Amino acid sequence: MKLSPLTIIIVGICLMLPMLSLGFFMYWSPNMAEKKMYEDNLALQEAEIAKKPQAEKRVKQAYKMVADATAGWSNVVAVHTPPKGVENGGIDLAVNPAQLSVDTHKFRNSVQRALNHQLKAGGVTVVNGPYVNDYPYDGPVNSILSTYYNYPTPIPFPVVIYDLGTVTVQGTYKQIFDNMRAWSRMPRYLAVADGLRLDGTSPNLTGTYNLTLVGFIRAKTIAPAISEGVAAASTGGGGFPGGGGFPGGGGFPGGPGGFGGPRGPGGIPGAPGGGGAPGTMSGSVGGNAGR
After folding, report:
1. Membrane-crossing residues (predicted)?
2. C-alpha to C-alpha distance for 234 and 249, rounded to whole angstroms
């Protein structure tokens, strides 16, 4: 039987279609998809390479920002942190908690002295000066870091924060404003004064404002807590003879239950009642402890 040319062509096409389909779906189409993927990846890589100079610039800027922030914080540390060592008016957190509870009372006195000195800025007369809170003599020694120095909670580094409440001073308009602005320059501590209110008739004005004092404590090492038995033996039921503190009811000699007695009538905390006129700067900080 002789096949016509048309039949041969049709048979050839039928035989070629499976082979063409096999070649298209098994080789050509996957290869083209892979080629496109390589081209897309190449374009992405070239785009990323083009970003390299900008990325290097951003890295340099980031390093500079970190260096500037570190330098700025170093300036804050140099000016607004208490000194190291109790003998220098600061505090050392590397001592054991029992000793730290004793040193904290001395540190509190140093803070009060610095505060009282700063209150005189501008030449004002202090009507109502703030009192720096102390750590209780019968307080647990193992809690002093967290309750007084706020470490490690709620703040991940040791810091003292004194919310000193209201300060009242008298003077001229310039004296009061100079006094308030001077808190930003207080050495060793970061003081924030706000909410100033003026009363009276010029030139004799009364200024009232709120004051908060912050001290960032520098400490390379912090002593761990001591066992309850050692803590009880170290404190002796609160510290020294006298029921929870030094002789005389929990304070230094010269004042009941505190550092040298109560506040004077107006003026700076710790000023003896007869040590000066109300509202003056006479009197030492905390009586005997403030000298």
Report:
1. 6-28
2. 19
Tallying the residues shown for the chain, one arrives at 291
Q: What is the number of helices (H) and of strands (E) in the chain?
A: 6, 4
Minimal CA–CA distance to 166: which of 128, 111, 223, 117? 128
Using DSSP's 3-state secondary structure scheme, residue 199 falls into strand
* For residue 276, pLDDT beyond 70: no
Q: How far apart are alpha carbons 85 and 94 in whole angstroms? A: 10
Residue 91: its pLDDT value, please? 93
Which amino acid would we find at residue 46? E
pTM of the prediction? 0.58
**Long-range contacts from 90-96, C-beta under 8 angstroms, 24+ separation:** 90/217, 90/218, 91/217, 92/219, 93/145, 93/149, 93/151, 93/158, 93/217, 93/219, 93/221, 93/222, 93/223, 94/219, 94/220, 94/221, 94/222, 94/223, 95/223, 96/223, 96/226, 96/234
Residues 6+ apart with CB under 8 A from 90: 82, 83, 84, 107, 110, 217, 218
Q: Provide the CATH topology of domain 86-216.
A: Alpha-Beta Plaits (3.30.70)
